[in-house]
C-alpha cells in the first residue's frame, strides 16, 4: 500500500487521514479508469496480512498477489503519466 500511496500523492490523490484502505481504494477506482481490478487485488492481498492474524512467508501467496497487483496498477498509471512525444521536446532545441 505504501507504493500506492506514493503514486496517489504524486497525482494529488493522497490518502486522507480519515480514509480506511477500502475507502482509499474506492476513491482511486473512481479516479483511475481501468485500474479497478488490480486495485481490488492489492486490497485483497493487503487486508488479511495487515488486519488479520495471517503471516505471509517470503515469496508466499499474499506477497506474490500484491506484487502482481502493483505491476498491473503501475502498467496502467505509467501510460497515463508518460508525457506525449510532442511535450517532451517543448522548450528545448531539437537535436541535430
Task: Describe how the helices and strands are arranged.
Blueprint: H1 2-10, H2 21-31, H3 36-51, H4 61-81, H5 85-88
Helix pairs in contact: 2-3, 3-4
Question: Which structural class best describes the helix and strand composition?
Answer: mainly alpha
The number of domains is: 1
Order of helices and strands: HHHHH
**Rg for CA atoms:** 17 Å
Low-confidence runs of at least 5 consecutive residues? none
Largest β-sheet summary: none
Query: What is the count of DSSP helices, taking H or I runs of 4+ residues?
Result: 5
**What percentage of amino acids are in beta strands?**
under 5%
Task: Name the descriptors.
single chain, 96 residues, mainly alpha, 5 helices, globular
Give a quick summary of the entry:
The chain has 96 residues and is an all-alpha fold. It has helices spanning 2-10, 21-31, 36-51, 61-81, 85-88. The chain has one domain (2-82).
Describe this protein's structure:
- The chain is mostly helical and 96 residues long.
- Helices cover 64% and strands 0% of the residues.
- It has helices at residues 2-10, 21-31, 36-51, 61-81, 85-88.
- It starts with a helix and ends in an 8-residue tail after the last helix.
- The mean pLDDT is 84.
Amino acid at each position: 500500500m505504501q507504493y500506492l500511496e506514493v503514486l496517489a500523492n504524486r497525482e494529488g490523490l493522497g490518502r486522507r487521514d480519515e480514509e480506511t484502505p477500502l475507502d482509499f481504494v474506492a476513491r482511486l477506482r473512481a479516479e483511475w479508469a481501468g485500474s479497478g481490478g488490480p486495485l481490488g487485488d492489492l486490497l485483497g492481498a493487503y487486508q488479511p496480512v495487515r488486519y488479520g492474524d495471517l503471516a505471509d512467508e517470503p515469496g508466499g501467496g499474499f506477497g506474490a498477489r500484491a506484487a502482481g497487483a502493483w505491476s498491473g496498477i503501475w502498467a496502467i498509471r505509467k501510460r497515463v503519466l508518460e508525457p506525449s512525444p510532442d511535450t517532451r521536446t517543448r522548450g528545448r532545441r531539437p537535436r541535430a
